[in-house]
């Protein structure tokens, strides 16, 4: 067996090449003050990445992907740079896209959307991978992108073709959203959305949220999650197209939910904060296309943001699930 876990000694001088970062907070509703205190800064922690993505907090550190570089990095509080955590992260042989979305299972094991391998896999303690899903009804996935783990152990993930190698035709005619049950059974739950991307569950797990990165119709969808894990009543919760402008780079991508049920979804301009009813409270403006976010820290009250070449963070007055 080949061990893919690298020692956490391979630090890259990411802060040696420091592009300017000028983040700010756009406050559209006074209710945002209860989520982010006035005057709270957006901090830059590290830079120099190609396209940072898929952050997740482990027991004591943040792990995130640099998709084109086929590398996952780790960052701890007090670090002045990020360290190589896993390389290769998503394409194990040859050239190809690395890991994208990441999550942690109840046993603390890292689960990865591996673009290059076109699969979802779990990394074991010895650094080897266990394949959780790589095809449905005999058809290979496109390039699993993002994922969320339910309390039941069911794993929901999206499968747009962003990470596929050029010249390779998809096996399936749709960009699917899937559910993997704890017994390994796979179910296709959504097949009529082009470019599904980020995925999340409401705190009561009665609603499934889906960020759609369609450049012509960027939006966040909401679905009623049934007891059997299927979805019904798909509707547009938030239409992001009116926000798209040259001064607001980015598209709907990753999203996370706080304990109050608010959505923190990347979109035009940075990270949009949206209520469960679809009201836009404000935006964390990053100035660059922004991929994803995740809460971390001992109290789960710090939002970490992967934004193009940057790793950022901001203290919040709410917590992540």
From the 3D coordinates, which CATH architecture would you assign?
6 Propeller
CATH class: Mainly Beta
Fold-level CATH name: Neuraminidase
- Along the chain, the helix and strand elements come as EEEEEEEEEEEEEEEEEEEEEEEEEEE
- What structural class results from the helix and strand content? mainly beta
Helical region count?
Answer: 0
The tally of domains stands at 1
Give the averaged pLDDT, no decimals: 93
Count the beta strands. Answer: 27
Q: In which range does the helix fraction lie?
A: under 10%
Rg (CA only): 18 Å
Instruction: Report the portion of residues in β strands.
Output: 35-45%
Multimeric state of these chains? Answer: single chain
| Basic shape | globular
Low-confidence blocks of residues: 1-17
> How would a crystallographer describe the biggest sheet?
5 strands, antiparallel
Superfamily (CATH H level) name: TolB, C-terminal domain
Give, in spatial order, the strands making up the sheet with the most strands. Answer: 1-24-23-22-21
Distance between the termini: 35 Å
